[in-house]
Predict the structure.
Amino acid sequence: MEMTSLKSFRVKLVFSRTLYSQSVASVTMGSLAAYLRSLGLQTDLCLFDKNSLHNTETILGDNTQGNIVIAKPNFKDFQSMIPLLERMKRVGSVQRVFFCGPFAKLNAKDLMSRMAWLDGIFMDQLEASAARLLSTMTEDCTSWDFLSHGVISRNLKTRTVEDHRPLADPVPLSDLPFPARDIEMEENVSFVNIEASRGCLFDCSFCHIPLMSEMPSKASQLNVRDPVLVVNEIEQLNREMGKTLFIFNDSCFWSTKKDDSRILRFCDEITRRNLDVRFYVYLKGEPFAGDEVVRELAKAGLVRVFLGVENSVKSTLATYRKKVRSDLYEVVKAKLDPLGVNVHIGYITVEPHSSLDDVLSNVEYLYHIGKLFRLGVILELVRVIPGTSLHRQLLKEDLMPSKLGYDELTYGYRFVHEEVGCLLREWKKMLECQLKCVTYGFEYYSTTGELLRVLVERLDQKFTFLLRDRYEAFNQKKLHGMNTLLEYLRTSIESARIGKASLASDIDHNRHFISEFTQITNDLAVLYRGIVSLIRQNGGERAVREVYTG
């Protein structure tokens, strides 16, 4: 697609950070920026930070006229981003505002109904849909093709919202230019986000990915990138920006045996070019990738696998539509440990049907596999996303109202067992409000300490011996912390059984736990710093730069 003439307006691509353990940049918005620039459009990538006073400056710069915003609000930060964009639109600092991304698409009807200032929402592949619409935009931004495919637009003449006309011809991932890396150029880290495919073949009840498919045949097909091109981008980012760790955002890097040849070609390209890089991928749990694929991935640089274990309770796994064996983590860990690959689990402890016994089962399972330090997966309830099978199930069971808006729906359900909801609220008061930095610190040092060991031992086997005593002390302290947490969580579950969930957040009642857990986290921080210092003193700076610094 080519623009009929060079446009004078600027397109501002606004997004928030999604995960703190990854780059702040959005691969999606970087890809859109590169594609629009290839068509001759002036485009700026704008990182929205909800804790910053400089978002207006970031978005507008010195240009307060002729701006079109394409924003990607997410499920966590929309309440900060949207009001600012509305104000910019109403005072004329920006002429047009369009939304994109999962939050916008899946709440499109409600957003367009309630926000008369919003001009439209991109529903299909972002690059192709945005390019089509912008090619029809007038110089003064007062008109465009309101029936453009892949987007729902507000017709400025009738003020009605036009129907969605699906995009029939998304751009193959291999035909898109490499994402623009403006944001990453400013990051002082060695890791970067990347993608080799889009879409998912599966249908977990809580997940938005199948609903976001950009292929005409929907979930039955992925938009896959030529593995040679993937390695070309890795090589370029490594050579030009010094990036050494690549975090694949693909929802499932390997899905079925049909992917074997593509993945093996990817591995072969990295090995053939002698690229000294590391990478993380998301892998399907069952069936798990074959031994040859896993072995070649590790040889090429795989150091971490994200694995969707999700829960220990059979009824909850059925609700999630997750068909996984009860010992999935243990089986996969046994395969990956000898290859020097860390396993990081996806886990959702609590959902609307959970009982106290279910919660206890999950707490004890996380302790059993050595992951009870992952407090975030205990405190973060399952998110309900409109259009998912979980959403439909909760509506059918009358566990949530049918007319909740975009700003109420995510956690707008009630619990079958009310005492579970009460307990979670009290846990949040204690662990997120009272202990906040302590809770975060314990999870951060535990998680990062595990990963750093894998990275530095992959760098040089000498660190296995050098760090042995340090890690023995570190792991003992981490275990002490998990034992302390287990006692607190078990005790508060039993309190909830007798209607005293509030004891879980009572400061006087938990004074010993607060003091002990705080001391353990401080000790862990000191031990972690000692490990980092020893690594640096012995030439392991690269591994330190490959982990998130908190």
Remarks:
- The radius of gyration is 24 Å.
- The mean pLDDT is 94.
